[in-house]
Amino acid sequence: MSDLDLLTQSLARNVKRWRTERGFTLDTLAARAGVSRGMLIQIEQARTNPSLGTVVKIGDALGISITTLLDYEQGPKVRIVPAEQAARLWHTEAGSYNRLLAGTEAPGPVEMWDWRLMPGESSSSDPHPTGAVELVHVTAGELTLTVDDVAYRVPAGASASFEANTPHTYGNDGDVPMEMVMAVSVPPVR
Question: What values do phi and psi take at 89, rounded to 5?
Fold first, then answer.
């Protein structure tokens, strides 16, 4: 079974499990996540490979991390994620990418990401739920972080934090690759 097949099967099983555990119908989860009921059915039946944005919306609506949605092992309280198991969820032909390095539920979802953006590329994110925060630390190049249509420059060695319940974009306006580590914390579903 390929990595993509494994992730699709895990996503199907975990979306259904967490939806049931939360007591959500398909219609309830669809409304909370802003995705169609048909898309959720396809996901739960492992008949589609949804976009990263769709997976993020479902995780936010369920109050769990993407790591938990894609987790195919139920292991001990200490979980080591080998480098080859870091899930690359977005990439471009030019070489930009993000990788989900690790995540946990404590008390709400917390995720750690590795990002690389090639010169001239960007990636936009829909707003997360109220109370969600992101932390970024730039290790190479310069990040142009746009939050609520205001651009902030974050050079290598610098860090930034922001409330992520508003549209935001990670961009590289420079002429060298930008690399950063990002942590996302989403409040638990009430």
Answer: -105, -15
